Amino acid sequence: MTLCKAGNLLTLTLAIGLSSPLQAADNNDNACGFNETARRLAALIMQDTHQQRSHITCHPLLAQAAEDKARTMADYGMVRHNLGGSPNGRLREIGFPIPHYYSGVMGNQVEAIAGGYSTAESVWDAFKHSTSHRQHLLGELDFYREQQYIGVGFYKDKSTPHVEYWTVYLTEAASDSAVPAFEYIPNKGVFFVEEPEIAVQVFDTSTTEN
Length: 210
Hints:
The model is unreliable at 5-20 and 192-210 (pLDDT under 50). The protein is an alpha/beta fold. Helix 1 packs parallel to helix 4 (120-128). It has a 7-stranded mixed β-sheet. It is built from 6 helices and 7 strands; from the N terminus they run βββαβααβαααββ. A hairpin with a 7-residue loop joins strand 6 (149-156) and strand 7. It is globular, with a radius of gyration of 16 Å.
């Protein structure tokens, strides 16, 4: 299994619309994720008893980006932040208005990825045992606590090295305000594949049935 580096029940709101990316709506099944497995992980993140945010909004643009990234990782057979560009750059390209003070080409203040975990529960447990992902997804740092929009992607392909691929985008939206006075702006980077404390499953394509 590969994890890329990097009780409060929250109010769930849904957002739709490309012309107005942050316009809220009452219902949209795909706002959190495009399949039940992705939506299950989104629920686990939002409803975790250690979640520091008061509310999180599901957004279909982020769900689409997460689904696309999970499929891209499967296509490459790799779990990496920099496939197809940086995470921050990916969200800017699809039209999600992340803050201007988020890093550019080398930036990742928005993405958590993993491969080789078969259930939402198992990948969420792994994320919580990764310092950088836990800080991001549970809002443990002041910078991350401001992030309130989420989208989750899950893709499975038995012919690929990790079989299951997971992506979470959790971000703040842009505003006209100046850079907030954060004591620390984290950047999970774009090149790390896994943290040392996370076990990596060795996949042998010559002996695995598709």
